[in-house]
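Run folding on both entries below.
>entry_1
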Amino acid sequence: MSRAKQAFGVYVHWPFCLSKCPYCDFNSHVRHAAIDETRFASAFAREIETTAQRAPGREVTSIFLGGGTPSLMQPATVGAVLDAIGKHWHVASDVEVTLEANPTSVEATRFAGYRAAGVNRVSLGVQALDDASLKALGRMHSAREALDAVAIARRSFDRYSFDLIYARPDQTPAMWADELRLAIDEAAEHLSLYQLTIEEGTPFFGLHQAGKLKTPDEAVARALYDVTQETCDKLGLPAYEISNHARRGAECRHNLVYWRGDEYAGIGPGAHGRLDIDGIRHATATEKRPEAWLMRVETNGHGNVTDDLLNSEERADEFLLMGLRLAEGIDPERYSALSGRPLDPKRIALLREEGAIIVDATGRLRVTSSGFPVLDAVVADLAA
């Protein structure tokens, strides 16, 4: 396959938020002074240029502006970042350009500006469709405001998606099914549905440890997962990845870059990348602290603090770990080509017998609906 036909993504991380959500362990920072967007835009452009010098000749098939809260950026800043990508790489005519946005009225008023700057898809951090849950999750919007923002997104963009968090405190499967039906009515083509996880270092972790935050037990969490699959399947948004649901053809192409093991550049504070340089896969990561990243880029042209060379075993394991998250599964021959050895047929046979995986008519290895809830164990077994 020629380089031009391969997927290549660019991820750009905007690290700032108005407030830190109590469940969030992403690289996001609150600043009370105004952010110097012009300086950050220049640094993004510089890091894009340096990265393109290391990985020249790529055709960009998707761009994802994540965070943090990228919808706090002025449309002109977004435009400057997209212009820099277009200046240093060739951009596909059908490029997917996604921007993550908070569903507040202030940010929704900027949607037309983002559209004019070149964004053609938004992903809204709705998280819940009832006010009590939103308040408990530390969100700064109401359910009504979220639905109003979805309506503005619908008018501004052909493609939009939103996120919801489930397995919230006191949530029952019946409540979640009702919320999901409302979400699917509004969602058009794509939903990202994540189980609430308690991450170390977050305020929720401390509350959970102290017994002040109760999340559903394993049986209820499993029932909520099953309701998610059943409801989305029935209403035309089946899972194409363990947490992502879409109508056929509406999958997020940028996220498929990660899960299919393709190349992507990571730009901005705390961004990760995977680049093939001289036939070797590089795993890159930049400085997480925004101001420290800024100074690194202004001094060195990039903010990289990690640039690891992945050996064939590491690359194959990553391919397995990411690829088995997808409903389409993996091609075992690609695994063999990456690792230099085939997957163990005895392990495959055992997992098939247990009903955790299937090998379809084309030879692709896929995790079954009963295998997905124990995906980590399936991956570990195959990789051993």
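>entry_2
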Amino acid sequence: MGTLLNMFKNNMRQYSMIIALVFITVLFQILTDGILLKPLNVTNLILQNSYILVLAIGMVLVIITGHIDLSVGSVAAFIGALAGIMMVDMNMPFYLAIVVSLVLGALVGAWQGFWVAYVKIPSFIVTLAGMLLFRGLTMIVLDGKSIAPFPKAFQKISSGFLPDFTVGSLNFLTIIIGIVMSLVYIGIEVYNRRLQKRYGFELSSGKGLIAKLVVIVAVINLFMYVLASYKGIPNILIILFALVVIYSFVMNRSIMGRHIYALGGNEKAASLSGVKTKKVTFWVFVNMGVMAALSGLIFAARLNAATPKAGTNFELDAIAASFIGGASASGGIGTVIGAIIGGLVMGVMNNGMSLIGLGIDWQQGIKGLVLLAAVGFDIYNKNKSS
């Protein structure tokens, strides 16, 4: 029990957000008379929040380095507009248009990263200028009009599902994937525990490990069962899962990830330790540009149109997701999983408040209070630890 309490204290912010997500989900499940967790609505939750979750993955890296990016919504709109021109007006194959769009997103990120990393202009100013610049360019290239429709194959990025076969009323492949994921997760946890034992690290109790495995496996299979009760696994969920795995590995197991945390923790100390801080900052913004481009493509595919108003307030939702998920406003702290949890908190709140008929004015106010409480909680923990 003592080990479990220490683990909770050391990861209080992340675990508290998981508890908050569970509480908010149960609350709205009751208030909506069970509609929130119906298979159709759970699938809609994933589709509606996918582009924000993609942005949150990139944004949390920016925030960990101690910077901010206010331009991501405008960049997403700009890239979506260019994708519309390439696919609809120029009849470019959708896969080639996607590659070109991601490259253009990287160039946008490089443009902003140069000013932040090498010219030393504060990221707030650079990305605020970028927000205005790329919103203006979006309106110029679209001439104030929407471009539609996109090719069917492109639309499937946001609206398609993994091919499946039905047994009764369930998509059976989805159930099988849930079981396989559970077995893989158990194998990873057992392997990590053996490594910790081999190198003499402090181990959690066997009962605690079993309890953790039971809870996680139950959540995975229940989630897959809900998806299998509708149309199975959405294509966008596969993309999100791949991004979470890749970025979690980079941040936790790679040199680049350690350099990003070191830069955010103390830039001068990191520089003296041999970290090329300018280069790290530059590439973090390049990555953010790619993620903004991907988000713009996902949103355009879901909307089936490139519009001048696309991406409005995306940056605020991504920043809020990162902070709610445990990122520190002063940098050096944050996780990819935490950003996803923060995004889900925001998504469940948006969906739940809409289902109970709460007006957009109340929704905005409540989300603002939740963000303020999350950052206040972070500052409280820092003051307490110091």
